[in-house]
Amino acid sequence: MAEYELDCMGEACPIPLVKAEKKLAELNVGDILIVQIDHSCAMKNVPEWARKEGHNVEIDEVDDGEWEVVIEKMH
Amino acid sequence: MDIKKNKFYKAWFKDAWPYITGAVLLSVFQIFTLAATGNPWGVSGVLANWGAWVYELVGGSVDKWYYFSSEGAQRTLETGFFKDPGTMRNLGIIVGAFFAVLMASQFKIKKLKSLRQVIAALLGGLLMGYGARIGFGCNIGALFSGIASFSLSGWVYALFLFAGAYVGSKLLVKFFM
Question: What is this model's ipTM?
Answer without folding.
Answer: 0.80
